[in-house]
Amino acid sequence: MSRREGSLEDPQTDSSVSLLPHLEAKIRQTHSLAHLLTKYAEQLLQEYVQLQGDPFGLPSFSPPRLPVAGLSAPAPSHAGLPVHERLRLDAAALAALPPLLDAVCRRQAELNPRAPRLLRRLEDAARQARALGAAVEALLAALGAANRGPRAEPPAATASAASATGVFPAKVLGFRVCGLYREWLSRTEGDLGQLLPGGSA
Amino acid sequence: MPAGRRDPAAQSARRPPPLLPLLLLCVLGAPRGGSGAHTAVISPQDPTLLIGSSLLATCSVHGDPPGTTAEGLYWTLNGRRLPPELSRVLNASTLALALANLNGSRQQSGDNLVCHARDGSILAGSCLYVGLPPEKPVNISCWSKNMKDLTCRWTPGAHGETFLHTNYSLKYKLRWYGQDNTCEEYHTVGPHSCHIPKDLALFTPYEIWVEATNRLGSARSDVLTLDILDVVTTDPPPDVHVSRVGGLEDQLSVRWVSPPALKDFLFQAKYQIRYRVEDSVDWKVVDDVSNQTSCRLAGLKPGTVYFVQVRCNPFGIYGSKKAGIWSEWSHPTAASTPRSERPGPGGGACEPRGGEPSSGPVRRELKQFLGWLKKHAYCSNLSFRLYDQWRAWMQKSHKTRNQDEGILPSGRRGTARGPAR
Predict the structure, then answer these.
(1) In the CATH scheme, what is the code of domain B39-131?
(2) What would the pLDDT profile of B252-286 be if each residue is shown by its tens digit?
(3) pLDDT for position A137
(4) Chain B: nearest CA to A130, how far in angstroms?
(5) pTM attached to this predicted model
(6) Which GO terms describe its cellular component (chain A) (predicted)?
């Protein structure tokens, strides 16, 4: 059997050798978690746009896809990378998301103080991103594919010129962060799915 | 430009937002060069305005190559394109907008005023906060549960909806001394309520008021002065038991226990009982049960399930002269009256135990008769208890007579009606 693209199996080993059962169970568990969190991320985005008001909730709404310091969207080339490399990028993005989500939460606490459900979802999203990121890193370590270099720390909270940002840009930023959160969760779910038996190349 | 009052507090709309870690090099509002892209700045940024006022805004475009034109730009407000006649090109790079008679903001995070390029892309945005200053909060009412805490409720001012986020703060202080304190536990019994859990003084009045604040100003309620002891409530009476009174088909006996938290202070407490037939929503209330912990309901329907509840008013606690505040009703307790072939009378009142007369007309007349008998017939041991025993005996003997006469075959109970007596 030829080596499957994207498989985490030892290239020297026949790909028909299955992963250890407990590791496979762990992968399934993490994949299920990613799937669940992707659904929550959809709900978060829906709730967010509703509370910011139109045009945020309109299908035609397309603000500039401005860069967010410390995190970018999955690149088009992401899908072509080996799966362990993709999962490293997923883990790095999941580690960068919590401080962004916390910042959005703090700003929304000012803009929408009577929206406890949105604030709770944002707090939960930060926690869940950390949890999923940690789970992905644990999987990578178990598979012997953990990042051997120094771990890039998420950017620390610093004052920036953006502290003078108005309300509308802050709303756009939150929209962007919630969108990135959903994108990276969806990407992580897909990448984990490829580790499962029967995952497509 | 908009008329109307502007409170310095409204300028807080322009206060810098808290730190946003890393962030977005916000180019929405900051020029970016060299990329061939256009950006813009809307002025004013995030203004606060009174309902009905006007706004003049500008969208100034920056970009590369220089001299980017304002032609083709347009405005949207909350996603809806604004009529072109409201816009005017001020100069080559600036488009102005004039809005009159503004309505209240659609969402508390602000109305989204956006400047678009010809192709529809977003160049800049500003959030409008249009509303009213808060009215004076009214109808402050407070109560203390077992003298341990204080919960207060209030109503927002007359208009209610200000279209802006309005913050309410309950303040309190001891009347003649002490500093102002601020309540911290909000929304405990509704959106406009606050709970003070501890450290409250008795026998000395408090002054309590509510301050309402939003971007357009603030308002303060009248001051409510109260003594904690005058607004005490307590728990519902526990251990409510309802039972039959022997064979009497129109009576039930209700017993309960004083609420334990205040049991040493309830000398003058009042109780109230309410009861209803099982499949009815209409409660009958028995008032003025005074400070007893038992009562007899009379004039009930035979063979009927009743639900009964009791509540307590800790009136007179520590000598308070105020009316007191009723507790919640106890959990419903159910019991049924014995079945009889004779229809019983309708609703009735509570009969205190010990044979004291109730307020029903028959029993009132009976009381008068018994009183006369005692005076004139030397029947010193006559009492309502004796009367009730007589009634129970009458019912029993009536059933037996009906069986003997074949109206009620032996073994069948109360399924046929005998001739009226």
Answers:
(1) 2.60.40.10
(2) 999 999 998 887 777 778 899 999 999 899 999 99
(3) 95
(4) 17
(5) 0.70
(6) extracellular region; extracellular space
Residues of chain A positioned with their CB less than 8 A from the CB of B25: 66-67, 69, 160-162
Partner-chain contact B27 A166, CB within 8 Å: no
- CB-based contact A162 B23, cutoff 8 Å: yes
Averaged pLDDT for residues A174-186: 96
Q: Determine contact: A112 vs chain B, CB below 8 A.
A: yes
B25 at A interface, C-beta within 8 A = yes
Asked whether the ipTM of the predicted complex exceeds the cut of 0.85, the reply is no
**How is residue B394 written in tokens?**
């009458």
Interface of A with B in 122-161 (CB under 8 A): 155-161
CA distances from B95 to A82, B57, B64, B70, B85 (A): 51, 8, 18, 6, 12
Q: Which residue has the tokens 């003058």?
A: B268
Chain A environment of B107 (Cβ under 8 Å): 51-53
Smallest CA-to-CA distance from B352 within B266, B225, B254 is with: B254
Report domain B138-232's class.
mainly beta
Among the CATH numbers 1.20.200.10, 3.40.30.10, 2.60.40.10, 3.40.30.20, which is that of B235-337?
2.60.40.10
A170 closest CB neighbour out of B17, B79, B107: B17
The residues of chain B that CATH labels 2.60.40.10 are 39-131, 138-232, 235-337
Q: Which domains does chain A have, with CATH numbers?
A: 18-146+154-192 (1.20.1250.10)
Contact of A70 with chain B, judged by CB distance below 8 Å, is answered with yes
Instruction: Report pLDDT for B331.
Output: 95
Residues 6+ apart with CB under 8 A from B134: B156, B157, B162, B166, B212, B213, B214, B216, B217, B218, B219
| CB spacing of A54 vs B80 below 8 angstroms | yes
How large is the C-alpha radius of gyration of chain A?
A: 18
Between CA A59 and CA B79 the distance in angstroms is 11
